[in-house]
Amino acid sequence: MKTRIIGFFMLFEAAFMLLASLVSLYYFYKCGDEDVLALTVSTIITSICGFILISAGRSKKTLKTDREEFESFEMIDSFIIVTVTWVLFTIFGMLPYLLNGTINNITDAFFESMSGFTTTGSTLLNNIDELPHGILFWRSMTQWLGGLGIIVLFLAIMPAINRNSNKFMMFSAEMSGIGVKKLHPKMMMTARKLLGIYIILTILCAFLYWYGPMNTFDAICHALTTISTGGFSTHQASMGYWNSPYLEYVASIFMFLSGINFSLFYFLFSGQIKLFRENEELRWYFGIVVFMTFLTLILFYIAPDVDTVLTNPDSFPSGFEERFRTSLFHVTSIITSTCYQAHNFDYDLWGSLFLIPTFFMMASGACAGSTSGGIKIIREVICIKSINNVFRQMLHPNALFTVKFAKEVVDDEKTWRVVSFLMIFILLYVFGVILFAISGCSLQESMFNCISALGNSGPSIGSTGPSMTFSEATPMAKWVMSSFMLIGRLEIFTVLILVMKIFRGRRM
């Protein structure tokens, strides 16, 4: 059964790869792009492998009936399917880069593909402006597919699994963050509602980009990567290519919206405004964005790097409006893990004081149930409230304190899951910093590289900063980065549980 499901996922990826092939075909006749063959061959290879896996899965039906297969489907099977699917999507997703010659080695191609599907946005390409349209569209599409989640999109479009419980297990394995509510008793309908909201936001964002200085192609590609909070662009200078205040404000708004739990949009559109307005995580999210925006604005006035201002004046905003716009863009871009680069956007050159809030925003992320990466605000708030209760309990030993979030009591099991997640996140982060340091990165770069990967943020500092790429990183650093991207995107538990299962199985 698992083999068949993974086979269907491969066909699912091939369908979107075919769409990229059609885009490349259009631009072949329009301007002579030469990526049609690479995308077409990639589509064929992915399709063939998908059909092979489906056929192999069906050949096993002689051993088990469909009913027996469904009954034997466990949560660990969901972890296997989700993890294997994401890895295979990355492997087959890198084929267009290799076959077209955009990237000439597996390490770099895997890195670029993983960065796309996990919506990390890190890149090692230094010639994005020269790439053909089909490849650029495929880069953007990988982030759009990974933003809402491959499993969610699959369940919404290709409901090949008949039991709702199995769908829920895979849904939970991919979107393990708390705060994602079922909008319908049937998981397929929940996935479709989320997809509908996802598409509406994408179309609206694309229209507003197109209404500004972007052409149709750039508007579509950037809408795909904005709503998915991925950050890939069709130009090396990213949003800074247009140097447009209009685009920076539009991007800031849609990055902020993409950081909101998508379930809340459904409540808003269905007339349940109170649930939207009174959501505690949303209020925290809005408050943090406002606070960090004004903190950044203040830092522009009190803590500029004098050497940068004198030697690189273009990297430092001037005037109140430009500083406010840059602050807003910086905060929404970083906290939602989009990390677009705009004009006057290089926090690595602004001064060391800017790095501290930037680091914590990269780690924090936005709301659970959104397309952003990071720890998620709901976890942070619950953890803070739990710590506060510990101190209150020490002062009042006989009193009974509970953690409340959104006017509901958070049970002990969920609280301990949050605490466990944060502890594992910190341990993984320390381990990752060590690995990056071993790979040849400086300590400061290692710290930012690791949080960038785990938080699916994208840029780092130094040689891999917002104005640079990962092209000069060592092969070991790229593989470590790719691994941590996947772990961060599946929110740690899904991958680690599978690894522990494999390890224990070998010991037994």
- Please state the average pLDDT score: 84
Order of helices and strands: HHHHHHHHHHHHHHHHHHHEEHHHH
Order of strands across the biggest sheet?
1-2
Number of strands: 2
Class inferred from helices and paired strands: mainly alpha
Give the DSSP E fraction (strand runs of 2 or more residues).
under 5%
Low-confidence segments? 160-171, 176-180
- CA radius of gyration is 23 Å
Distance between the termini: 25 Å
Shape, please?
A: globular
Summed up, the helix count is: 23
Q: Quick summary of this structure?
A:
The chain has 508 residues and is an all-alpha fold.
Could you characterize the architecture of this molecule?
The protein is an all-alpha fold. The chain is 67% helix and 1% strand. The chain has 23 helices and two strands. The protein has a two-stranded antiparallel ribbon with strand order 1-2. It is globular. Mean pLDDT is 84; it is low at 160-171 and 176-180.
Supply database-style keywords.
single chain, 508 residues, mainly alpha, two-stranded antiparallel ribbon, 23 helices, 2 strands, 67% helix, globular
Topology:
Blueprint (H helix, E strand, L loop, with lengths): L1 H30 L4 H24 L6 H6 L3 H19 L1 H6 L5 H12 L15 H16 L1 H8 L6 H11 L12 H25 L4 H12 L17 H14 L3 H8 L3 H5 L2 H23 L3 H6 L8 H16 L16 H13 L12 H19 L7 E3 L2 E3 L1 H27 L4 H12 L20 H15 L3 H15 L1
Antiparallel strand pairs: 1-2
